[in-house]
Design brief:
Layout lengths: L11 E9 L4 H16 L3 E10 L4 E8 L2 H12 L2 H11 L3 E11 L14 E9 L4 H17 L4 E10 L4 E8 L2 H12 L2 H10 L3 E11 L7
Antiparallel strand pairs: 1-3, 1-4, 2-3, 2-8, 4-6, 5-7, 5-8, 6-7
Helix pairs in contact: 1-3, 4-6
């Protein structure tokens, strides 16, 4: 029931989330910033963030793959990469309390964007939708997203629909210059009749919603 339109090519994104021991968060970030190039030598990193609000002691990664064969080859290569395993993986494993991954595709009406400049904050909004996928709720959801874009206070980075993991999940990533700009923009959006109408139509398909404010790491391509 989760099938529906998606991007026409095989490209997908692996979303990885790590819950870390509070006492080890700073050290984890420092080690990633130092050694992440060992990992990006094997495949493309889209973004790497830490949670500031909505979650604590959490890191979020997005990795891009051409297809599943590409991911299989990369996973085999990094398992045999002694530098990567020895300098980062083995030391940080004791820092991690829990990890979670999903495979997601960009929805067909969205291309991966970039912020207009470096700096700023990212809002990661997770929507749990009713079963049926974009074929069911895609049009209404797109209208709600576009209504927010049209207010001009925020920049859309990407809209991802899960293929593996909790199905019928949509992750939407927004960029703002700072948290205060985001708060002011949201206040204006809540008073915009076009936004209110579009959201009201979209929530017919919504089960739940959760968001995080993310800060990009120094090594993140999106920052």
């Amino acid at each position: 029931l989760a099938t529906g339109p998606r991007q026409n090519n095989g490209t997908f994104y692996e979303i990885r989330m790590y819950d870390l021991k509070p006492s080890k968060m700073k050290e984890f970030v420092e080690m990633l910033n130092k050694y992440i190039s060992l990992r990006t030598a094997h495949s493309e990193l889209v973004g790497l963030w830490t949670a500031e609000l909505g979650a604590m002691n959490k890191a979020v990664h997005i990795w891009k793959y051409d297809n599943f064969a590409h991911r299989t080859a990369v996973r085999k290569a990094i398992a045999n990469d002694k530098d990567w395993q020895g300098k980062l993986i083995s030391p940080v494993l004791p820092f991690i309390e829990k990890q979670h991954n999903e495979v997601a595709y960009l929805v067909p009406w969205c291309q991966l964007g970039k912020p207009p400049k470096e700096g700023g904050v990212y809002e990661w909004v997770t929507f749990q939708m009713k079963p049926g996928g974009p074929a069911l709720w895609g049009e209404a959801f797109q209208a709600a997203i576009n209504a927010h874009i049209n207010t001009g206070y925020t920049k859309l980075i990407g809209v991802f629909h899960t293929e593996y993991g909790l199905l019928n999940t949509v992750h939407v990533i927004w960029w703002n210059e700072n948290a205060d700009q985001r708060a002011a923009g949201r206040h204006r959006a809540h008073e915009d009749a076009r936004v209110v109408a579009a959201v009201r139509d979209s929530v017919r398909f919504l089960e739940s919603q959760q968001n995080m404010l993310l800060i990009p790491m120094a090594c993140s391509p999106l920052k």
